[in-house]
Specification:
about 675 residues; 10-stranded mixed sheet; about 35% helix
């Protein structure tokens, strides 16, 4: 038995836990659909990033021995099982539940005459003008098919207009077309909601695209491609320009997966597999639309609020007052904001007050994922217009957010902001905002640090900790990190911050070693860690050593975790749980206690090799005793007693669902936190 669990297998297990929410009958129906779509979105990224490494070995820094034919077959088998289960849930559980609630996805054969007439008119008016079938021959080679796009392959009989028997045609479907179409209420005949998929509309009228031919076998298909941007940062003069060029080609990277309809003929499937140069394990025959992600459009089309979670509005941070100066508050105490139970608006107000305050001279901020429409970025631009010195460290290599971040960087630069892109070869993942204010004859710094992104949308969906402070030593440390990102000078010895890739991992190891040494002297030790992923083998081995020395360890790891729990003789003192709830668990909390001495750090980093070695990350201590206890209570203890949303990892690498998950009668940490802050509001 291997000491550690394979990280990719563990990632697929995480998606099985997410899929479980789509099966739970006590969860509102449209939310169950949302979880199903989330799994599809996660799988897309898994194939684009992780499977691409196995199939093509593109990660030159990785140990090639970890990407073998056997590992590829292993994760392919697990991925096929997950996809099969996903479509089973869709067809056998969700579709009947939709129908019971008056929501019908109707196929061509189920449509009555009036409905067929409307669909035909819709096809002729909205769809057909945008479709250009390509008949394949030497002058018309197989077309470039974009990543994750909907397409059809059609086998034709008869001859074309030039008396040739080119039998294969490809139909590419534009992304601009909606994947779900709602039929007019007058066609319902009742209060039901009638929906049709775009793929159903097209397949019903394929013959209209080939009026002089006979349509034989056909299938929808979708190819997933490697989406890594291969840019040699050491060998380009302008990283932003190089990335823009790379983005133009991302849609057409090497293929890693082919999805076709379950009824696709072997002849057509083999033809496509040959075109995309894929091995047999890369073929996925699915019983439904090839892109379940786009089914999320149903949620917006169905007007039934009772089939959704009750809306959650985070309370205004209870340590802040909308009418008072946040700078004055921070002179008295540090401020903690627990998102989404408390609103991200507190962070926006901090920046807004800085922008509007004439005493504020400079604002520095890291930008990782802000989204396309960002009030925060607009505030930074307003700060520039008001004459403040604005420095933005924009991470233009944030995967799948490159284009948005490049656009923001250019917009900030165009009005005079100082924009830097961090350090060559490293991603800037640390979340920091530093404000410098003139108060009398001195400059005073105020800072915001976060475990999550500066993104108002995800701040409503992810659990994260925002931390506001005027602590002079911490703000001085932050200033040094910003200076390094801009000038690339060496960091001095910092008072409180741990920074990757310089000392974050070594500081974590040293802290664990101290607990091991104290444990050997009879001092009881305790470690509780909360994070998204634990895949760094070096740190995992440190935890194994600590557990074997007698330190009691609890890990709250939402996603991939390579460390098996309570394996006899190996991890007896280590327990691992994963929380999958209404909100995406995203905060990183590191708690260490030796006897009566305790330390608690918040961080932007997961315990992954990339976070420790290939990113700029920070971890910072919570020095305020009251706030430290609040984090222990809200982020650690509440989750360790969760009996509704928790899964426990066993020694074999499998996850066991807690007994109250199906009935929703157990304790849910997220639900209790929503109640707590609703009352506080």
């Amino acid at each position: 038995m291997k000491d550690f669990i394979d990280r990719d297998e563990s990632s697929l297990l995480f998606n099985l836990r997410v899929l479980d929410w789509a099966k739970r009958k006590h969860v509102p129906l449209l939310e169950r659909l949302r979880y199903l779509c989330i799994v599809s979105s996660n799988l897309d990224e898994f194939f684009e990033v992780r499977v691409a490494l196995h199939l093509h070995g593109l990660d030159k820094k990785a140990d090639k021995s970890s990407f073998t034919e056997d590992t590829y077959k292993q994760i392919s088998t697990s991925a096929h099982e997950l996809v099969d289960e996903q479509y089973r849930v869709f067809n056998e559980e969700l579709i009947p539940a939709f129908e019971a609630n008056g929501i019908h996805l109707i196929t061509h054969s189920e449509r009555n005459t009036a409905q067929k007439k409307w669909v035909k008119e819709y096809f002729d008016r909205e769809v057909k003008p945008l479709l250009t079938p390509v008949g394949l021959d030497p002058a018309h080679p197989f077309p470039l098919v974009a990543n994750k796009s909907l397409n059809f392959i059609v086998k034709l009989s008869g001859k074309d207009a030039f008396e040739r028997e080119n039998e294969i045609a490809i139909v590419k479907v534009p992304r601009s077309l909606p994947r779900i179409i709602k039929l007019p209420a007058k066609l319902n005949g009742s209060s039901t909601t009638l929906l049709v998929t775009l793929s159903s509309v097209i397949r019903s009228h394929l013959a209209d695209l080939f009026p002089d031919r006979v349509v034989g076998h056909f299938s929808q298909f979708r190819v997933t491609r490697d989406s890594d941007l291969l840019v040699d940062e050491e060998d380009v003069t302008n990283l932003r320009t190089a990335l823009r060029h790379g983005l133009e080609h991302r849609q057409f990277g090497l293929a890693v997966r082919l999805e076709v309809s379950s009824g696709c003929s072997d002849h057509l499937a083999d033809f496509l597999m040959h075109q995309f140069k894929l091995p047999p394990n890369a073929l996925y025959r699915v019983h439904g639309p090839v892109n379940l992600v786009r089914l999320s459009q149903i949620i917006d089309l169905v007007e039934k609020p009772n089939l959704l979670f009750q809306p959650h509005q985070g309370s205004y941070p209870h340590q802040l007052n909308k009418e008072e100066s946040i700078f004055a508050r921070l002179q008295m105490e540090d401020v903690l904001i627990h998102q989404p139970f408390e609103s991200f608006s507190g962070v926006l107000d901090f920046l807004r007050q800085a922008v509007n305050d004439p005493k504020v001279l400079a604002i520095k901020q890291t930008i990782y994922r802000t989204g396309i429409d960002s009030e925060l970025m607009d505030l930074l631009r307003e700060a520039v217009r008001r004459g403040k010195e604005v420095t933005a460290v924009v991470e233009i290599k944030a995967r799948f957010d490159e284009e948005a971040n490049i656009n923001w960087a250019e917009r900030l630069e165009s009005i005079g902001a100082q924009v830097v892109y961090g350090v060559v070869g490293l991603k800037t993942h640390a979340k920091m905002l530093l404000v410098t204010r003139k108060e009398g004859n001195r400059l005073v710094r105020y800072a915001h640090l976060s475990t999550g992104n500066y993104n108002a949308r995800t701040a409503r969906l992810y659990t994260d900790i925002s931390y506001l402070t005027a602590n002079t030593q911490i703000t001085s440390d932050i200033e040094h990190v910003f200076s390094q990102l801009a000038s690339q000078r060496r960091l001095p010895t910092l008072k409180h911050l741990w920074v990757a890739p310089f000392n974050l991992q070594s500081k974590l190891t040293a802290t664990i070693d101290q607990l091991i040494k104290a444990s050997a002297d009879g001092v009881p030790g305790r470690i509780v860690l909360k994070m998204n992923s634990l895949t760094d083998q070096s740190l995992a081995k440190d935890l194994v050593r600590a557990g074997q020395s007698g330190v009691k360890i609890d890990l709250i790891v939402r996603g991939a975790c390579i460390l098996p729990a309570q394996r006899p003789g190996f991890t007896d003192n280590i327990r691992v749980r994963s929380i999958i709830g209404r909100f995406l668990e995203h905060s990183r909390v590191f708690y260490f206690r030796s006897g009566d001495k305790e330390d608690l750090y918040l961080s932007s980093a997961d315990w992954m090799n990339r976070n420790m070695m290939r990113r700029i990350e920070i971890a910072w201590p919570v020095l305020d005793v009251k706030l430290r206890q609040r984090i222990i209570d809200e982020c650690l203890v509440a989750y360790l007693y969760d009996s509704a949303d928790a899964w426990l990892l066993n020694s074999e690498g499998s996850y066991l669902r807690q007994p109250f998950a199906e009935s929703a009668k157990g304790l849910s940490a997220q639900t209790e936190l929503m109640k707590k802050f609703r009352k506080a509001n």
